[in-house]
């Protein structure tokens, strides 16, 4: 099995440059429009949605742009293994994003959130 991508929602296109490129180091690959009725059939949303594909190394994200995104309680998150999670956490805080550091028995666990509420767990390589 091979993981191809993870799809998450964002509220604004500026998140791509501000968070995904600057903070996490992703590169924008391409974008496309997913049109209704496909969005209705797949996701139950009656609207067209623009999707941005970003990549860093072998990690690919599809960012679904939905300005009407509402906050929902969720345990969903993306876990990334990085050479420098502490630097990414520091850069996130500097840019005004929420960052959490938790001391656990196996070491420090890091979580950061983008401006749309998506959660990223960061682990040391």
How do the strands and helices of this protein lay out in sequence?
Layout: E1 6-10, H1 14-21, E2 27-34, H2 38-43, E3 49-56, E4 59-65, E5 78-82, H3 85-94, E6 99-104, E7 107-113, E8 119-124
Parallel strand pairs: 1-4, 5-8
Antiparallel strand pairs: 2-3, 3-4, 6-7, 7-8
Query: Residue ranges: pLDDT <50 for 5 or more in a row?
Result: none
CATH class: Alpha Beta
Give the strand order of the largest sheet, numbering strands 1, 2, ... along the chain: 1-4-3-2
What count of helical segments does DSSP give? 3
State the CATH architecture.
Roll
**Fraction of residues in H or I helices:** 10-25%
Let me know the number of strands.
8
What characterizes the major β-sheet? 4 strands, mixed
CATH topology label: 2,3-Dihydroxybiphenyl 1,2-Dioxygenase, domain 1
Distance between the first and last residues' Cα: 22 Å
Report mean pLDDT, rounded to a whole number: 89
Rounded to the nearest angstrom, the radius of gyration is: 15 Å
Quickly describe the structure.
By secondary structure, the protein is α/β, with parallel strands linked by helices. The protein is 19% helix and 42% strand. It has a single domain, classed as 2,3-Dihydroxybiphenyl 1,2-Dioxygenase, domain 1.
Describe the structure.
The chain has 125 residues and is of the alpha/beta class. It has a single domain, classed as Roll (2,3-Dihydroxybiphenyl 1,2-Dioxygenase, domain 1), CATH 3.10.180.10. The chain has helices at 14-21, 38-43, 85-94; strands at residues 6-10, 27-34, 49-56, 59-65, 78-82, 99-104, 107-113, 119-124. The strands form two sheets. Strands 1-4-3-2 form a four-stranded mixed beta sheet, with helices on one face. Strands 5-8-7-6 form a four-stranded mixed beta sheet, covered by helices on one side. It is globular, with a radius of gyration of 15 Å. The two termini are 22 Å apart.
């Amino acid at each position: 099995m091979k993981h191809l991508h993870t799809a998450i929602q964002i509220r604004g296109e500026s998140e791509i440059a501000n968070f995904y490129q600057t903070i996490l180091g992703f590169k924008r690959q391409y974008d496309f429009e997913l049109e209704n009725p496909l969005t209705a059939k797949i996701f139950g949303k009656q609207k067209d949605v623009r999707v941005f594909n970003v990549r860093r190394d072998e990690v690919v994200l599809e960012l679904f742009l939905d300005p009407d995104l509402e906050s929902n309680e969720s345990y969903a998150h993306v876990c990334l293994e990085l050479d420098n999670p502490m630097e990414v956490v520091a850069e996130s805080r500097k840019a005004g994003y929420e960052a959490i550091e938790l001391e656990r028995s196996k070491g420090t666990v890091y979580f950061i959130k983008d401006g749309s509420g998506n959660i990223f767990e960061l682990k040391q390589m």
